[in-house]
């Protein structure tokens, strides 16, 4: 009996030695049941299908796809490209037990998914005190396109590789802007490209967003070529929108046209030629209302009522068309209580603009005189439809 016990112990020792060496050398061998215990069950939450990729990025090779409500087994998670999904916005990507990665933005898991083991240190999330979020200059914008889907590229150029495509109405998070290829889009014509939170770029010509800051070291954006109209052409183009402004809001058409001429330089200013803003209406804390489609920051010259002028920076609204700008002009005056006295004179153009100026619409002390002079010289009173 003792001999038999001794032989069994010797056998155990001889077997255990090579087994231990094999496990350490392979680095992947685990005791039975360990891998399954670490796996976390999850459910896919997506409208159509979710791509399974070879790495944690939307640019990585597609290995397959998963349908909505499909059950999967996740092994661990890694940090990759940030994605906005139906469940959350996150940079976490989940490694599947079947191979490949899916963004955690479309995954509902039964428990927290542990980080994948790595031989190199991984960055940890910065811990902040509750109730004090980290300040950010990122701006969430909306893609607007009547030309189909919009390409998001690896660089600020129409020749840069396409990373993905987005449909009109999609949300994108802009970090800053740079100068690149000139693009004539649905929203505007511009050489500005917005750098997104994932490091890729989208043409500002297709994005409605609050104003972004220039990326560090970025060159100034080249202005779009200005469309030059003769005074006759400008007035002809302005009349329909100005008369619609009077019908909708009560602003005399002659006043609207004269203000547009004065403030846009007959449509030749950068603000009007690039952003179709003919009245210098500004954004307020990044908000641009329902008729504009975004904001754009400019350096501008302003004057006090005492006649002292100075250079400052201001953020102005951008528009899809001249008509949208003219409608917003009427709406802007109508909804601001300070201009209410002017609407007692909707059929008296001179009295109307006098009360608008008196309420502080413009800081130029000669603004009223300039507007009424244009109204008379260009015979704009004929477009006041109540006559």
Automatic annotation (TrEMBL):
The molecular function GO annotations come to: hydrolase activity
InterPro entries named in the record = Glycosyl_Hydrolase_73, MGlyc_endo_b_GlcNAc-like_dom, SH3-like_bac-type
Chain coiled-coil ranges = none
Record carries keyword Signal: yes
Q: Identify the residues that the record assigns to the Mannosyl-glycoprotein endo-beta-N-acetylglucosamidase-like domain, covering every copy.
A: 221-384
Provide this UniProt record's keywords sorted from A to Z. Hydrolase, Signal
Gene3D superfamilies the UniProt entry points to: 1.10.530.10, DNA polymerase, domain 6, SH3 Domains
Signal peptide region:
1-37
The family database entries (Pfam families) matched by this protein are listed as:
Glucosaminidase
SMART domains in UniProt = LYZ2 (SM00047), SH3b (SM00287)
Q: Where is the SH3b domain?
A: 39-111, 138-211
Q: Which PANTHER family match?
A: PEPTIDOGLYCAN HYDROLASE FLGJ
NCBIfam families named in the record: sporang_Gsm
Protein name (record): Sporangiospore maturation cell wall hydrolase GsmA
Q: Which organism is it from?
A: Paractinoplanes pyxinae
- Record lineage: Bacteria, Bacillati, Actinomycetota, Actinomycetes, Micromonosporales
- Gene that this sequence comes from: gsmA
């Amino acid at each position: 009996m003792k001999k038999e016990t001794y032989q069994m112990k010797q056998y155990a020792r001889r077997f255990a030695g090579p087994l231990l060496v094999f496990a350490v050398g392979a680095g992947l061998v685990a005791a039975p049941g360990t891998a399954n215990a670490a796996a976390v069950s999850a459910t896919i939450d997506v409208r159509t299908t979710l791509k399974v990729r070879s790495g944690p990025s939307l640019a990585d090779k597609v290995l397959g796809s998963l349908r909505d409500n499909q059950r999967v087994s996740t092994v661990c998670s890694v940090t990759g490209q940030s994605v906005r999904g139906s469940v959350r916005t996150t940079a976490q990507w989940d490694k599947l037990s079947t191979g490949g990665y899916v963004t955690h933005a479309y995954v509902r898991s039964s428990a927290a998914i542990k980080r994948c083991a790595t031989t190199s240190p991984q960055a940890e999330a910065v811990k902040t005190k509750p109730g004090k979020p980290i300040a950010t200059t990122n701006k969430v914008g909306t893609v607007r396109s009547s030309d189909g889907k919009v390409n998001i590229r690896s660089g600020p150029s129409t020749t840069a590789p396409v990373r993905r495509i987005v449909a009109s109405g999609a949300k994108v998070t802009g970090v800053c802007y740079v100068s690149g290829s000139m693009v004539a889009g649905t929203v505007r014509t511009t050489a500005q490209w917005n750098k997104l939170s994932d490091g890729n770029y989208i043409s500002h010509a297709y994005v409605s967003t609050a104003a972004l800051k220039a990326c560090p070291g970025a060159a100034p954006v080249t202005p779009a070529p200005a469309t030059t109209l003769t005074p006759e052409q400008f007035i002809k183009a302005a009349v329909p929108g100005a008369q619609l402004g009077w019908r909708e809001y009560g602003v005399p058409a002659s006043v609207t046209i004269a203000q547009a001429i004065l403030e846009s330089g007959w449509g030749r200013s950068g603000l009007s030629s690039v952003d179709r803003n003919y009245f210098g209406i500004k954004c307020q804390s990044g908000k641009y209302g329902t008729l504009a489609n975004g904001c754009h920051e400019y350096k501008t010259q302003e004057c006090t009522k005492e006649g002292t002028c100075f250079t400052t920076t201001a953020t102005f609204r951008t528009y899809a068309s001249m008509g949208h700008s003219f409608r917003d002009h009427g709406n802007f005056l109508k909804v601001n209580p300070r201009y209410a006295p002017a609407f007692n004179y909707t059929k008296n153009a001179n009295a109307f603009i006098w009360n608008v100026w008196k309420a502080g619409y413009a800081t130029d002390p000669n603004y009223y005189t300039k507007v009424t002079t244009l109204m008379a010289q260009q015979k704009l009173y004929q477009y006041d439809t109540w006559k």
